[in-house]
Each structure stands twice: as C-alpha cells, then as structure tokens.
C-alpha cells in the first residue's frame, strides 16, 4: 500500500470509527514514539536506504544490514528503524547519509529494551496478505468493528426471554469461546473472531467504548467476554441509531464501565422487599378470588420494583409529581404498592357496593387515584396520579401527557423538572395501536412536549391469544420508539437487578436529556388474558413452559440465599408480615358497603366546588369599554417600533376589523377574540389547540401574524391585551385528531379555572378521535366522577364540499347525551333553576350557535358555571363572514347572557295568530331559510326560531314558542339527511314539550 492510499484509508476509518488523530493513530498501531520530524523525512530515509543497500549489494555482493524479523505487535517499521539505529551507532557509514542525518539530529529516541520485551509479538506468518503494515491496521480495525457490532446489534441475540423460546442459544466457536453473537451480529469480522490465533492478541480500545475501564488495551478474548456480558446477557440495548454522540456516550458510560452493575446488599434487600410485595399481593388475590378477573402481573412482577426505582431516582433528582398512564394489567398492584391506596378500599372493589355518588362507576381495574405521600428512600414528598383508563388500552397516553403538560404549566415548570409522566404499555398494544405513534410524536413539539416520558412495556410476548408473529411486522414491539430517537432498554424480567439498573438509567436519562426512553420488560403472562381464560387452547407449548417455570420472586430468593444476603428465616418472616397486612385489609374491606367514586379521582379540584354558588350562573356580559379595548388591540398592527412587515391581505383584514369595532359590531372572529380576551383579563388561562388554529382553517382568525421578510418572527395581539393578563396559548398541532383531543382533555383535567379548546379542522375529522370522545369525554363523569370543561369546536355546514368536509356529525354526540327524552324537567325544592339543573345533570352540552354574541356568552359560561361540563360546539364556515352573522356590542354587555333559543324578532312575532308555520332550526340552515322566506315575502306567515343549545334540550323555551304561535303548523328544518343531524334527538323532546294541556297559561 503506498503512502497516498494509506492516508485515504486512515481518513475513511477516522470518519466511521472515530479513531485518534492521524499521528496518534499511526504511532499507537506501530508502537513507536512520535517523531518530531515530518513523515516525509522518514519516508525519504527509508527510500534512500533501499537504494543504498541495493548499490552496496551490487558492489560487494551482500547487503549492508541484516533484514529485521517482521512482527505484528512491534510492527515492521519500528523494528526496522531500530535496526537502522543500531547499525548507525556501530558504523555511521553502514547506512545511507539520510539516515545518518536523521539519527544525528537527535529526532529519534530509541525504545528502551524493557519496553521491547513487553511487546506481544505474533509472527507475520499468522496473517494472510503481503503488506505487514496494512495487516496490523486491519487487525485493530477489526477489533473496533467487533465492539461496534455488539453495541449496534447485540440486543438481537440477548438472553431476554425467561421461557427460552425466542432468544438465540450460545454457539461454541472454533476458538473455544461460547458466544451468543452470531455471524448476523459480527457480520464481516466473524472470521476474525472465530480464528483462534487472534484471541490473545492485545488491541487498543477506541474512544467509543468503556469496557476497559482504566485499561487502554485488552486481548480479543477479554473484549468478547466483556461485550457478551454487557450486550448479550439479560439486557439488550438499542441506542446506536441516536444521532447525538454525547447521548450514545452517556449510555455507554453507564453500561460498559467495569463494575457499573454492582449493587450493595442494602439495594438487593430493597429489591427483594418490593418484589415480595408485588408477588404476594397477586398470590393473595389469586387465593381469595381465583376466578375473578383482575388482570394480574404474574410473569412480569418486576414492574413494581422498576416503577418504584424510577420514582426514587427521579424524586432524588427533583421531581415532585408523577402522572402515570396504565392499562388494566397490573393496575391493582400499582394502586396497592406504588400509589399506596388503602388495601381495604382496593379489596372492597371485589364486593358489590352501593354508590354514594351519582354515576354508573367502572370496573376496579379501570379506576384512577391521586395520592400524596412521603418517599422513604429520598425522604421527600411525592404526588402520584394514576389516570383512570378505559379498555381502549393506549388511549390514556395522550390524556396523561396533556395532564402532565398542564401541571408543568401551572407550576411554571418550563423544563419538566418537577412533574413527569410515566406510561406503561402492553407489548401487543404498543406496536398495534396508532395512538402510540401519534402521542409519541408530540414529544418534541413546543406546545405539547412534556420534556421526556418514561415508557415501560409489560411484554408478555403475546396479545390476548395472538402470537407476535401475527400481530406485528417489526422484530420488536418497541420499534415505534425509534422514530423519536428514544433509547430502548430490553431486559429479561427474571433478572431483577438488571431490570432495576435499567430503570435507574431511564430516570437519569430523562433527567439529563429531557427526552423519551423505553424500558421493555420481557416476561410472560402466567394466566390467560384474564384469570378466567384458558390459554392452553391457543398457546399449549408456551403455557407448558410457563407452568414449569419458577416465578421471578423464587428465582431471586434463591440467588440471595446463595449470596447469603438473606436467610430462610428472614424470608419466611418477611412473607408472613406482608401476608398479615393483606389479611387485615381483607377483613377491613368487609366493613365497607358503599363506594364514593370521588375518592378515586385522579385530579381532585380542591376547594373549587365549595367556592361556587351552585344555584346560579354568574352574568357573562362585559362592560363595553372592555370590549372596545380588546377589539382595538385585536385589530391593531404590531407596534411601529417592531418594524413588522405585514402581509397586505392582513392589513386589509385588520382595517376591516377596526371598522367593526368603530361600529360596535362583531363578526365571528371578533366575537371569539372578545370572549377570550375578557377571560384573559379576568385571569383565566385560555388554550386553543388544533391543526390550523393560529390562522384559522378558513383564514378568519389570524391570532398569530407572520413577518413577511424574517423567518419565525411573529406577533400575537391576544398575548398583550393587558399587562397583568393570563397566558394565552394558541397551538398549531400535529396532524392528529385522536392524540391531540386526548391531550387537550388531559390538559383540562388539572385546573377548572381555564378555558381549553380543541378545534377540528373540519367537523368529520374528529372521526379518528371517536374513542377519546366515547371513553373519556362523554362518559368520564359517569364512570369516574371526572368533570371536564373541554370545548370541542367543529366547523359544520353542508356546502357542497363532500361529506368529510361538511358534517360535524352532531347526531353522534346527541346519541350519547345522558338525558331522558320522555321526562319534562321541572323545578324541585332543591333547585328551582331548571336550566341550571339541566346543565348539572347532563353529561355534556351540544350547541350550534348562529351569532358571535351567543358564541361569546357560551364560552364565558363554560368558566362561569359552578361545575364543569364538556361543550361540543358546531361552528360555522360560511357563517364566519355572513352578513347576518353579526352581533352588536349591546348583546354582549353587562346584563346579557347566552340565549338557548333565539326567537323570531321580525314581523311574525307582531301578529302570532297570523303565522302559518313555526319553523324550528339550528345553525347555518337558518340563513338559507331567512333568505328563502324573504324571497317569497313570507315574513308575516313563517316564524323562524333558532335552537342554539340542542342538548340539554330547552323544553321551557320551546314550549313557550309553541304556545305563542299556537295556531301555526310546527316544523323542524335541518340541512342534514333525516337519519343525520338533530332530528332523531329533538323529535321525541318536542313531543314531550307539547304533552301538557296547551290551554294553561
């Protein structure tokens, strides 16, 4: 290999394997001291010497110097130069004059004899090829490739399966070593490893590994031994796809350094005690309720010590509040041993209990909770929130994320150092449900990040009865996490110490880098999908192994007994003590006959309900001066000193907006801004989220203005209305409906004194978020006493843009409304305010407003009510700019309120007995009917009444209108088909409203 080629090769390896600098790289491989003179001088001396020897041979018939024995360890050049030096010392004339000049300069320092003797010399004959220098370098590079191969692909052959079904076996290589690393892992260097003649050669370790500790060189045998233990034992680490060198290096330091996995006796005892509690709790439930569904952890019991380790480490690093999202498997154990919910309250759920609260309740393994307790390991108080979760397994993920983000916001925790989120998944659902991908992609979005989530996968290696080969295409269930560069730590769940070590790493990673990390606990499921299921029907071989397999607690006890960490007496005593605690909880549970669902709230609103007058809704009108101030601010361009270059179209929009304020009139965008701005003035945080919300899907809102010549320079007038206003957050979201709607619902759970709005791009686009609506929003209060004031806004109107861009599918929401169509609500001795009583007892509010003033009032009413209900609001498209969709400021000033219906104020109301048709309608169709009536000059014959609040149905006001126009024909008009829209909902309620004798009053 010539010098030019050699330089090119070094450059290539420098790029790939991060070696030391050129000179350091060269001298370390040749084991000679760095030369002060340039390589060119040395190269020239070597060339001149060859010519000198050739000339001498032609003259004398023999060479001037004896050729050196070429070796690998010392290197041919090192030995040759030393021979030249020795020959020069004996006879300066025996070498070329260039060597004479080189040695005379003192630039070369001979390697001491004691150092030469320590060289690991391997004859060149052991290497193939003809260029010794190339072979030396190739050998060291192969060693580096071996290290990199283990780091990159070692997890593929790690011993992760406790049952021994899926992982690879150890293979005995020709060199006598047993390796898990197959040729698929070692690839191009497999022959280098298998060839035993290199096993005891020393190789310099690259800067990209810490397996040597303080040692700079290791033999290949020792390198393989250490790499096998780290990457191919009970841990499988995926991290080499991470772009950041610093993050990869951070992981290596905590995995590769010799002794990093060693733990103290005290730590082993802590793991033992936590594993004992997790295991004995499951065993206790199995004894008492053998056939009862409980979705136990058996087979992945180590999850409890892992969660507690994460909480311990994070608490020590400053985290005070933990939001936990978890499906049903292991929830009871988590409630008992992580959240420390009183055992009697948990065990009482296995009995039939009468509810103290209104609502249907939910099964025990769906309930959430909130606790605040002292962490005895760190001696710090921690708050634990386990979010209530339905059977839509992973749908709780964005809800927990949103709640975490909200807590961080109200705490002023801008970096997430005090509040964090832990999400616990099942293996089949983690890879199979798209919400995992949707919510994971929120991890680095500025308006949605929670600054790192720790994901724990309870990997049972099976989903219900479906084998992983038929439930996913990726090799691992966790592969989805690679899209956000999250490191993935796989671990055999039968190795408690490795599991806890990786849990510690997860907590430290999240604290250091504020990014997601995944802990994959590879275990099994001792029972079927639930305890009443028979798994042998579908997985006979797996469950034959499971029934013969010892539980992890037994395995760990044997290990600790052998290490003399515990004794048999201590083991029995510990088990008896916890069993006694469980028995006491069991006996106390028998005394509980009722359940109070509010005790299981995951986010209690302390003092909120007590501070409100439950008998009325405060006035939602605002002083006109406030409206004008907000209006002028909202319609003004950025201050001149900002030199903000506006789009010409925006300038026209702002000018038109200012004219509206001058005229004391509001269109839809201005009415919206007046509602939000007045709430901000009152200290209410407003958050608007969705795919186009900054501008508005229909280019009507323009809350964020963009500088036309400077990238990322923006201006939002709503954020600077008043110096002491609340924070306004307007958040363009990812193109996800399910993930974002779940996130905003979770956000709304933390603080009732906020207005949280999710706006769908088009009405039907919430189709993919239907499970969030079904499982959390429509039924949350009924199941979990979980109130939420979330607003869902959906543009609605059949305007020829195709079905997906037209209908908000209001019928779906109305079908899920919890009110009786056959019962007319009446006042009682406890509540004479019938409209407020309706709002209190309904599960949500569904409205279709036609005026900016009504939008203004219904938004302000969301915050003013003495309780919280979700609001489903159909918003207009053409109505955003329709000339009839205007409101005067006098409709929003003090003394005004939301109108559940808007009567006809035209000629029809002046002579009601002359009216032939009384037409009730809702939404955009009103404007079409209004125009059609005017075209036919039927203003005196046809009365148009708008039903603005559809649910709860305004029986009293509808009945009032029917009695007022008692001689007219009653008609319901809608733009949707008969089996869509509001008709199916309103028809029986109209009938109920008309039931009493019309002669009364």
From TrEMBL:
Keyword Transit peptide: yes
An annotated Gene Ontology molecular function: thiamine pyrophosphate binding
Cellular compartments per GO CC: mitochondrion; oxoglutarate dehydrogenase complex
Keywords linked to the UniProt accession: Glycolysis, Magnesium, Metal-binding, Mitochondrion, Oxidoreductase, Thiamine pyrophosphate, Transit peptide
Highest taxon of source: Eukaryota
Annotated Transketolase-like pyrimidine-binding domain residues: 666-882
Keyword Metal-binding on entry: yes
EC nos: 1.2.4.2
Cellular compartment(s): Mitochondrion
Pfam families according to UniProt: 2-oxogl_dehyd_N, E1_dh, OxoGdeHyase_C, Transket_pyr
Enzyme class: oxidoreductase
Record GO biological process: glycolytic process; tricarboxylic acid cycle
Main localisation: mitochondrion
Requisite cofactors: thiamine diphosphate; Mg(2+)
Family according to the record: Belongs to the alpha-ketoglutarate dehydrogenase family.
Matches recorded under NCBIfam families: 2oxo_dh_E1 (TIGR00239), PRK09404.1 (NF006914)
Function: The 2-oxoglutarate dehydrogenase complex catalyzes the overall conversion of 2-oxoglutarate to succinyl-CoA and CO(2). It contains multiple copies of three enzymatic components: 2-oxoglutarate dehydrogenase (E1), dihydrolipoamide succinyltransferase (E2) and lipoamide dehydrogenase (E3).
Protein name (Swiss-Prot/TrEMBL): 2-oxoglutarate dehydrogenase, mitochondrial
Taxonomic source organism: Glossina brevipalpis
